[in-house]
Design brief:
The chain is of the alpha/beta class and 305 residues long. 48% of the residues lie in helices and 11% in strands. The protein contains twelve helices and nine strands. Helix 2 runs parallel beside helix 3 and helix 2 packs across helix 9. It starts with 11 loop residues before the first strand and ends in a 5-residue tail after the last helix. The protein binds iron/sulfur cluster and zinc ion (2 copies). One zinc ion binds next to helix 12.
């Protein structure tokens, strides 16, 4: 087999089109997909100050690498990285070192957020109490990344969700019947102007996990490979297993889910309306107490495990 664009040995085969790519043409292909997503959703504009949420992993590593490359040629765009330390020993303390190395290599400022400092709690402590860690961790992460990005005057918050993550989230919210979360998916924010929220974008959404892993390896992007030890959300795991089976049998299934979602989302109404503020912490919230204050109150109460 040879690369479909030159005579060199292939490093990648795209199963939806049976195309072969050598190293050079694979890199071009991956970058083209990324730039196309940026353009399609108007993700870059003048005078942007972009916060990139990184984890030390390959998805956000590739995201930061590509963005740095693009924005260094744009005089009126600033870039910085954010990482949340949830307090997971043997995982986050290790992956933070990779995030630091990458930011140093790219010369991008990195701001660390500590869950312990902000909420007086760590995910390790919650796990010991037998609490569903991912539920808390996800809500804390969203809240703190938005808060920090806003405080640092970011105009946009970019996250590294890939095609596999997104297809999985679309199906999972569908299975759970969670309409309001279902509306919040997609590459660009459903409602851009909501007071207190930094618009969140997902430019990696059209690249698969395998493509990202290959790109990161070829480009020598430092990344931490291990998964978090608390990733035991059963619905998420089962959804991914089924999705992988289907995509293996019918290549392109995951991409089709994303394309279909993008089409129907344009037709969906914005049911969320105006947003208020949490009476306790002042962050944006749909009710008197935001989800984070609600969870923290529960953890401090007698009912908490
Ligand atoms: Fe947090 Fe769960 Fe992700 Fe671990 S797997 S970082 S606990 S959301
Ligand atoms: Zn080639
Ligand atoms: Zn609150």
């Amino acid at each position: 087999m040879k690369c479909g664009f030159c005579q060199k040995a292939p490093v990648y085969m795209k199963r939806t089109s049976n195309e072969y790519f050598c190293e050079e043409h694979f890199i071009r292909y991956a970058e083209k997909i990324f730039k196309k997503t940026l353009r399609k959703h108007n993700m870059l504009s003048k005078n942007d100050r972009i916060a990139v949420a990184i984890s030390g992993g390959k998805d956000s590593g590739m995201l930061l690498h590509l963005l740095e490359n693009i924005t260094k040629r744009r005089k009126n765009t600033e870039l910085f990285a954010l990482i949340l330390d949830e307090g997971i020993k043997g995982y986050r303390d290790e992956s933070i070192k990779y995030a630091e190395r990458l930011c140093q290599k790219l010369d991008v400022p990195l701001h660390k957020i500590s869950l312990k400092k902000e909420m007086k709690i760590t995910i390790d402590e919650l796990a010991k109490r037998g609490v569903k860690t991912c539920t808390y961790c996800g809500i804390f992460k969203r809240y703190l990344l938005n808060k920090k990005a806003r405080e640092l005057k970011a105009t946009k918050l970019f996250v590294g969700h890939n095609l596999d993550d997104e297809a999985q989230s679309i199906l999972m919210n569908f299975f759970r019947g969670d309409y309001s979360r279902f509306l919040r998916l997609g590459a660009s924010p459903y409602t851009v102007k909501r007071k207190g929220f930094v618009p969140r974008y997902k430019p990696m959404i059209n690249l698969t996990e395998k493509e990202i892993a290959l790109y990161a390896a070829l480009k020598k992007i430092p990344f931490y490979e291990k998964r978090c030890l608390y990733s035991f959300d059963n619905v998420r795991r089962d959804t991914l297993e089924k999705l992988n089976e289907l995509d293996e049998k019918y290549p392109g299934t995951k991409q089709n889910i994303i394309s279909f979602y993008e089409k129907i989302r344009k037709e969906l109404p914005d049911i969320r309306g105006e947003i208020g503020t949490c009476k306790k912490c002042g962050e944006p919230s749909n009710s008197d107490l935001c989800k984070v204050c609600e969870l923290l109150d529960f953890l401090r109460s007698d009912k908490s495990p």
